[in-house]
Specification:
Blueprint (H helix, E strand, L loop, with lengths): L2 H10 L2 H7 L1 H9 L11 H5 L4 H5 L5 H20 L7 E5 L13 E4 L3 E5 L6 H9 L11 E4 L6 H5 L6 E4 L11 H11 L5 H15 L15 H14 L5 E5 L8 H10 L3 E5 L3 H6 L2 E6 L2 E7 L2 H25 L8 H6 L6
Parallel strand pairs: 3-7, 3-8, 5-6, 6-7
Antiparallel strand pairs: 1-2, 1-4, 8-9
Helix pairs in contact: 1-6, 2-3, 3-9, 9-10, 10-11
């Protein structure tokens, strides 16, 4: 079904019919507390009695509601058609750094691999993630190009609103639709045509709680979640429910979650994972790290055998730091022999 046909359907079909065709539309209206709209009316008729001020409280206009419903139906269409590229590898072709000089190298990443993007603050790590997210074709400031399976992705692949190849988890995860976690996950599962919806959302919920520093309940509102809880939920969602084979994560170490387990979870699901990080534990957990300098790729380093060995030492020390963080969160004191605690002589948190 083409965009123009979907747009016409949104404005001519009764809401009840739209709910049947795309269950995510019903949940969309539940999220803005309009679940009791008359299903025997069209969208325009049903919204006639709703004040503009009410919609503005949710950051919406009537036109934006229509656009949102079109996007939901297009996503549903693409999910049902199964027309998504089977991604085996992603290649970043060199572009330019901030000074206009050619980058040192490009690189290729395969399914199940993790790439850490490292560099000073402001060096251009997020710009690289942005180029990957939009599948750049020399049309961004860096002039990089992205290949999928060694080929230039077509426009349908680049600009599809549904069946997206790439999921991005930013540093700030803010929900604007006031749904319970259960309804939110149900909406995602149904829109992705997932089988055994209840089982899958339970899996996501339990996984998110394992990642989160602070547990939460299934019936909690998504707008009530902390930043760390939100990111834990979306990482679990991306790993278990999302069909996107490529996941981009920006500075997961700031999220207050079990970052190492989160990245491992995504890799085990055969995702290609890019993570921007300053954390040596995450950097050495990756298969390789891309070093960004002055906006360009400076070098690509495979994680060496010695670095893998050193990772065990970093993990051991990190576990001790996690003990200290947990003690602080629970109101404990750190007035013991810290030297002995870290060197394993005696004492504990």
């Amino acid at each position: 079904m083409e965009h123009s046909q979907i747009l016409k359907m949104i404005h001519t079909q009764k809401l009840g019919r739209l709910f049947e065709l795309c269950p995510a539309i019903r949940l969309f209206f539940s999220g803005i507390r309009l679940e009791r709209l008359d299903t025997e009316e069209t969208l325009e008729e049903a919204l006639q009695g709703i004040a503009d001020e009410y919609l503005e409280d949710f950051g919406l206009t009537r036109g934006e509601i229509s656009d949102s419903l079109v996007r939901l139906m297009e996503k549903d269409r693409d999910e049902k058609s199964g027309e998504q590229v089977a991604v085996r590898e992603l290649t970043v072709l060199p572009g330019l750094d901030k000074s206009g000089n050619a980058e040192q190298s490009g690189f290729t990443v395969r399914r199940g691999e993790i790439v850490a993007v490292v560099g000073p603050t402001g060096s251009g790590k997020s710009r690289l993630l942005g180029d990957i997210e939009c599948l750049a074709q020399s049309d961004t400031p860096t002039e990089r190009s992205i290949l999928i399976n060694g080929e230039i992705p077509d426009d349908a692949c680049r600009f599809s609103l549904g069946g997206r190849l790439i999921s991005q988890l930013s540093q700030n995860m803010n929900f604007v639709i006031d749904l319970s976690i259960r309804d939110f996950l149900t909406m995602h599962a149904q829109s992705r045509m997932v089988e055994r919806v209840d089982d899958r959302i339970e899996e996501v919920f339990l996984c998110a709680n394992r990642l989160s520093g602070e547990p939460f309940q299934m019936d909690s509102g998504v707008t009530q979640l902390s930043g760390g809880q939100s990111r834990a939920l979306m990482i679990a969602d991306a790993a278990i429910l999302s069909n996107s084979p490529i996941v981009l994560i920006d500075e997961i170490e700031n999220a207050g979650i079990d970052r190492e387990q989160a990245v491992r979870l995504l890799a085990e699901r055969e995702k290609i994972v890019f993570l921007s990080t300053h954390d040596p534990l995450l950097a050495l957990s990756a298969d390789r790290r891309v070093v960004i300098r002055n906006g360009g790729v400076y070098r690509v380093l495979e994680t060496s055998r010695r670095e893998r060995s050193n990772l065990a030492v970093i993990e051991r020390e990190d576990r001790k730091l996690m003990e200290l963080r947990r003690s602080i969160r629970l109101g404990g004191r750190l007035d013991f022999d810290m030297e002995a605690f870290f060197h394993g002589v005696q004492g504990s948190a």
